[in-house]
Amino acid sequence: MKSAFSLVEMLVVVGIIAILTGSSLAVYSNMTNKAQVTKGLELVMNTTTALTQYFQEKGFWADALIEGSGDRLNAKAAYPLAKAGYMSLSYDANMRSLSGLDRCGIVDPWAMDAIKAVSSSSNADHLKVRTGGTVDDHILRYAIDDDGDGITEINTEGISARVRATACVWSCGPDGVFQPYSKRGRSDDIYSWTKAMEVR
After folding, report:
1. 110 with 38: CB under 8 angstroms?
2. Can you give the pLDDT at residue 182?
3. Which of 113, 124, 146, 156 reaches 20 to 30 Å from 139, CA-CA?
4. Helix (H) or strand (E) holding 167
5. Which residues are CB-contacts of 147 (< 8 A; sequence separation ≥ 6)?
6. C-alpha 20, offset from chain centre
7. DSSP-based three-state secondary structure for 122
8. How far apart, in whole angstroms, are the C-alpha atoms of residue 36 and residue 190?
9. Range name among 5-14, 47-56, 124-133, 180-189 with the lowest pLDDT average
10. Quick check: 198 and 163 in contact, CB under 8 A?
11. Crossing angle of the two packed helices 109-116 and 7-58, in degrees rounded to 10
């Protein structure tokens, strides 16, 4: 008598394989999301350090940084950081702007995939990002202490704060939607400062 698998046994095996595959994909997706958040936090903190170092070593802010304060670290605003060597960004000295993959400015990790997908000559800032929003929504925001009193005043996009820092940087997170800093839990946005650093 030959022994063989019955249809029920085959379905049970297929079901077990499907469950194991599904759970491993969920774990992989969760780990990928956590890695992106970690990269985003690292980028925010490194950019804050670069801005602080720029001011401490130069003793002044570049005009492009002052003009853009409270808004995005776009290709024009981030150019002084690249030119001075505080951040490893591609730039065009003739155009006084960032170039290559950095042509939109300093973008968080969620937007970099969208930028890599198009040629360098394309206008990438209006491209859709897989996790939400456009590349423009994923450019880091910043504010600087432009009066030299050691406190950065932030009054933009729902943030109204005074932070004891030379510079503050934030990201809108994976969805590209800004949530006001004062909102409980701070949603998925990433900030370079904490409530303890705020001056009342």
Report:
1. no
2. 58
3. 146
4. strand 167-171
5. none
6. 33
7. coil
8. 12
9. 180-189
10. yes
11. 100
DSSP state of 199: -
In the block, residue with structure tokens 């350090």: 49
Tell me the per-residue pLDDT of 158-194, one tens digit each, with 9 for 90 and over: 778 899 999 999 998 898 888 776 555 557 889 999 8
Distance CA 147, CA 150 (A): 8
Which segments of 33-134 are extended strands (E)? 91-92, 97-98
pLDDT of residue 181: 63
The neighbouring-strand residues paired with 142 are 169
Q: Provide mean pLDDT across the span 68-86.
A: 90
The structure tokens listed for 34 are 């956590």
Give per-residue pLDDT as tens, 15-42: 888 888 887 777 777 777 788 889 999 9
DSSP code for 187:
T
- Asked if 18 and 24 count as a contact pair (C-beta separation under 8 A), the reply is no
CA distance linking residue 72 with residue 107, whole number of Å: 9
Please, what is the average pLDDT of the chain? Answer: 85
pTM above threshold 0.90: no
Q: List the structure tokens of 187.
A: 């949603």
Calpha distance 195→162 (Å, rounded): 10
CA distance 89 to 159: 28
Inter-CA distances, 41 with 6, 35, 106, 146, 188, Å? 53, 10, 13, 24, 11
